[in-house]
Structures are given as C-alpha cells and as structure tokens.
Write a structure and sequence with these properties.
7 strands, 2 domains, alpha/beta, 10 helices, elongated, 308 residues, Spore Coat Polysaccharide Biosynthesis Protein SpsA, Chain A, single chain
Length: 308
Amino acid sequence: MNVLSVVIPILNEEESILKLYQELISVLKNLQDYEIIFADDGSTDSSLKKLQELASKDTNVIVFSFRRNLGKSEALTLGFQKAKGEYIATLDADLQDQPQDIPKLLEKLEKGWDVVCGWRKNRKDPVKKVISSKIFNASARIFWGLRLHDYNCGLKVYRSEAAKSLNLYGGLHRFIPLLLHQQAYRVTEEPVLHSKRQFGKSKYGFSKLWKDLPDIFTMLFLSHYGDRPLHFFGVIGGFLFFVGSVILLYLAMIKLGGQGIGNRPILFLGMLLVLTGLQVLFTGFLADLLINLLSRKEKKFDLKYFSE
C-alpha cells in the first residue's frame, strides 16, 4: 500500500478537531503507512493548542500554523509541499465530509486516475449555500467544459505529483480540478456522504457567489491567455484604437470641408479611444515581453516520461 498523506486546513474548528482525528484514525489504521498534516490558517480560538496536543501524542500527526489568516489556498499549498506520501487526500475539518469515504476514492485513483474529487450528491447544507454552489458549478462546466458536479468538495485524493504541481492563492482552491485538468492530469469524481455541520458555523454564505466572480474571471484569463496576454489585450486595444481612428478620420474630413470641430464632444471621444487603445496594446505587449523573458530564463517542461 502506498503512503497516504492527509492534508487538513484548519480555521477555528476547536470543537470538531478531536472527533475528526478519532474518525480519521479509525479509517487510517487499516493502512500500512500514513501521516496527517494539519495546516492551521491563523486560528484565533484554541484550535492550535488542541492540534499541538495531538501531535505530542501521535507521531503521525504533523502541525503547521500560519501567524495570520492567509486563506484556504495557501493552507492547502503548504500541506501539499510538506506531504511525503505517494497519495495525498484533502479533507475539511468541519466533519461534513466523511473520512470513511477515503478508501473508496483511493480505489478509484488506483484505476488510473490522477485526481478523484468527492461529489456531495445529497448535500446537507442550507438552501442558499446549495444554490450558490450549483450556480458556480454550472458556470464552471459551461466556461471550461470539465463535466464535474462538484468542483469544490473538500474531500479529494491525488497522486502526489498532481497535488505538488499546484501553486494556489486567493480563491483558486475552488478550481483545483480545472487547474489539474488543464495540465493534462486525469480528473474524475465519486459520490461521497455529506453531513450537516455539527459545530461552529460555515466560513462561506450566499455572498460566496459574488466572491467567486473575480476568481472566475481570473481563471478565464489564465486558462485562455495566461501564456499569450497580447492576444487578449491586443484585440481590445486594437478595437478601441480602430473606433477612435474612424471617429478622428471622420472629423478630419469634416474639417477639410470647412466645418468647425473644436466644440464637438465626439472629438474628445475619438482622442480618448485612440489613447486608451494604445495604452491597452502596450500593456499586452509588455506582459507578453515579460512572459517571454521569464520563459527564456528557466524553461520547464511537464514530461510524462523520460529516460536517461
């Protein structure tokens, strides 16, 4: 059996930590080798103290703690970097996802997949949260075509190389399946059990949908134009420059016909469009130049196989 690393981000979950640990151990004790990595995201309650107590009693428990709250993406990235297992599982600490589903996801992973995402088929969350999640998942399927029912379930299992390839920040943890799919990793999902939150309160509400929008735009840009920004800025800047030039050409023809144009608002619109178009074009050019220079400095290839 391959070594399994379980990465759990923690933020103010003092009431659920001990029960989560007990449920995890009851599942993991049947595995030959494992480690549990708790990434404390700057908790302000007694979560860190309880984690330290667990680590002092169990050598398989490893605890990292941020000095301040950085976000779930950073906590997961830290856990992935520190994990030593060939397989890595992630799990939220709120006890809504069940550790008993981990072996089922591992079995599917061993069939040739690189990432298996949990699918909370029968969610036990408040209606508002379920609706916002469905809207997000439907939008992601439309924009990128990766047919998953549940992008953001906390319960996932990965091959180590897939998890360690991620460099998450901001809200990008919501797009983990998509990020890996775009790197040609094989992504699938499996229905898992879901329970009502027993302790504390959710860190996300219906407002999460509006917080997701900037991340969706970020992912749209990165997925389509991340390595060729001039193709994005060039189209927008070129269109603005063209419209502004047409307006100024029209005004020039009027001026040659003997009409005054100095007091026409359209003159200022044309000038503004031309200048804005040039600025956008040069922004894209500089971004393209920067990416080109960085790629020359250190070119990395994501190889599936090599021999020396």
